[in-house]
Amino acid sequence: MVERCLGGDNEAFSGLVELYQDRIYSFALRLLGGEAAAEEAAQETFVKAFRALPSYNKAQPFAPWLFRIAHNTCMDVLRAGGRNVSIDEEDFPDIPDQAPAVDDTVGEALDEARIEALLASLPPLYSEVLLLQYREDLGPAEIARVLGVPEGTVKARLFRARAMIKEKLATVAGPGPYIE
Amino acid sequence: MKNGSDNIAKAIRALPYRGPRAGFSARVMAAIAKEQSSPVAGLIGAAELLVAGWSALVAFAAAGLIGSNWTAIAAFLIQPGSFGRALDLASARCAMLAGKAVALLQLAADLAAAAPVPAWQEFAAAAFVSAAVIYTLSGRLAAQRI
């Protein structure tokens, strides 16, 4: 289908949009929080993708390339809304260094509503690595290409993101039912 | 004991995809069609054509020059130390051109000082052409960046 798009077949691009629209829209929705903003970002992503198709390298998988555009678009929207999307000292929440029990705080299954709320409560740079890793099944190398950062940074963000979720769960739940 | 990270991964994997409102792909294709048919797109296309035409002309002229003098060029290049001499020649040529450019700028400044200021239409036309070329080039760079 991508081949046909590169050959100038607009109908094929429409098929690509339908194939990826839910994934891109969901990604944008979970980063931006609002349906209207997510739909606008998703639409902008596909328009940009269409424009940039001649620069797409066929040797690389299509999904990470598309998610890279979606990431850039969402970051632009967040910046335009005054959100800080850079990593600096202020962005790092205080996660205690001595947290031996945090891995045990997610002892029971997390339901959909709770994990959605937890993801929404994270800074976007952290929630997106979790979404790309687990929901989109991308490896650290692919995520690094999507975000335009070194692979080590991706691994560090993943670690931080998981730690933040565990910390939030521990804070909300206390040492009660979530610790086995 | 269950691993906490595994549970987080499992929960995120199980998240459903949400869908945009019905007719999303049609709206995307309409936005693309609108962009393609806008006057700016036509202007960009024309500017791209201008840049491509100029590049082709320069390449053609250079190829013609090399083609008509290739024997002399080959004879020069096979001599020992020819690359160094070619480099010296090129440097000298560049220095001469730079000197000429400075003199030309000086002459243009003198003429501008002596002559009346060009009409605003000329300024506007020059600005328009320059903006079109810059817009085209910056658009290509932006497309590469995505």
List the quaternary state of the chains: heterodimer
Order of helices and strands of chain B: HHHHHH
Number of strands of chain B: 0
CATH topology-level name of the largest domain in chain A: Rna Polymerase Sigma Factor, Chain: A
Say how many strands of chain A there are. 0
State the separation between the terminal residues of chain B, measured CA to CA: 45 Å
Q: What's the SSE pattern of chain A?
A: HHHHHHHH
Instruction: Name the helicity range of chain B.
Output: over 70%
**Global shape of chain A:** globular
Sheet with the most strands, sense and barrel status of chain A: none
**Average of per-residue pLDDT values of chain A:** 83
What distance separates the N and C termini of chain A?
49 Å
Task: Give a quick rundown of the structure.
The complex is a heterodimer of chains A (180) and B (146). Chain A has 180 residues and is an all-alpha fold.
Task: Write up this protein.
- The complex is a heterodimer of chains A (180) and B (146).
- By secondary structure, chain A is mainly alpha-helical.
- Chain A is 66% helix and 0% strand.
- Chain A has two domains: 2-80, RNA polymerase sigma factor, region 2, helix turn helix motif (Rna Polymerase Sigma Factor, Chain: A); 102-173, Orthogonal Bundle (Arc Repressor Mutant, subunit A).
- In chain A, helix 2 (10-32) crosses helix 6 (124-135), helix 3 (35-52) packs across helix 4 (62-80) and helix 4 (62-80) crosses helix 7 (140-147).
- Chain B has 146 residues and is mostly helical.
- Chain B has a domain at 1-78.
- Helix content of chain B is 83%, strand content 0%.
- Chain B has helices at 4-13, 24-37, 39-68, 70-77, 82-114, 120-145.
- In chain B, helix 3 packs across helix 6 (120-145).
- Chain B is extended, with a radius of gyration of 29 Å.
- The A-B interface holds A 10, 13-14, 17-18, 21-23, 25-26, 29, 38-39, 42-43, 46-52, 54-55, 65, 68-69, 72, 102-112, 114-116, 119, 130-131, 133-135, 162, 165-166, 180 and B 1-5, 7-21, 24-25, 27-29, 31-32, 35, 143-144, 146.
